[in-house]
Amino acid sequence: MKIIGTGRANPAVVVTNSMLEQFLDTSDEWIRERTGMAERRVISSEKLEDLAAEASLKAIEDAGLTPADIDYIICSNVVNEYATPGLSCIVQGIIGATCACIDVNAACSGFIYALDMADDRLKSGKAKNILVLAAEEPSRMVDWKDRSVCVLFGDGAGAVVVTEGEGMIGSRLTTVSKTDCLHYFRTLEPTPYITKEEEGKPMYMNGREVFKTAVLSSSRDIKTLLDAAGLKPEDIKYYVLHQANMRIIEAICNHLGLDMSHFPHNVDRYGNTSSASVPILLDELNREGKLQKGDKLVFSAFGAGFTTGACIIEWTK
Length: 317
Ligand code: COA
Description:
- The chain is an alpha/beta fold.
- Helix content is about 30%, strand content about 25%.
- Strand 4, helix 4 and strand 5 form a beta-alpha-beta unit.
- Helix 3 crosses helix 4 and helix 7 packs parallel to helix 8.
- It is globular, with a radius of gyration of 19 Å.
- Bound molecules: coenzyme A (COA).
């Protein structure tokens, strides 16, 4: 597998920390110090499927292809207005593709799970050009009165097009069922037979627990992959990490004994856009001309589950 195109789309509304101060007991200083975030983009009038389609069309164009050339779509998504059909099916219609489509939900790690599935599908010869996208609106999962959670998230979409090639050096996925520290319940339709108690609840997160688990598991995944590939941390040009918190990124940087020049970030501008954060950052690097052929990149993410996903990619574009 190799990546041949990237794209991204973010909502228009910018929510700054001082805007949050107006209705929450919080401060710009607290949010910057604890998270590195200054602002985030939040969906207002946009539909997530339109952002997802915009990111996808940009990635397809960057790859020098048309939607008719795409023969499989994998979309990472946690929530959107539709429970069914999958977001990938909706995006297929908007962009005018005709291939088979599937959604995956591995929370914030989802893009890397989707990329790993695309790699397998290419290896099996069942597809040639795959659109792998991640589109997320975590702003719709949080309680906007809960300052410990709502300040952390933003919405957005990122996409790549992959085809046969020698760009995937290694990947590692892990899942440990640990639903107590991070979850979100939605209500289902009532039936005449339901006797159990059910209640929709906004996102719950044990921030400290997630922080520790994220740093340890991401560092472990990256070291395991580097060892398996016979690479040293400094052989990687950029670590394109899930943008959940600047302090998590810095802690992983310390674990690897590197300086921050290897850790591009945009968490200050977008907050945590769940599984879209890695492809959004990758697209920024690509469009800013920061990636050269032969560069080695690490992608690493973690999220509810608890899931982690990491891979080493060689940039071949
Ligand atoms: N503004 C001001 N104060 C806040 C606040 C906010 N937005 N959110 C929480 N606080 C308060 C808490 O109530 C607590 O007050 P107390 O000491 O009086 O009880 C204090 O700040 C410290 O809270 P704590 O949760 O210990 O802070 P922290 O240093 O752990 O930072 C997070 C909180 C959420 C920023 C941090 O734990 C984190 O980033 N965790 C990982 C989250 C993550 O990555 N989630 C996504 C996974 S995909």
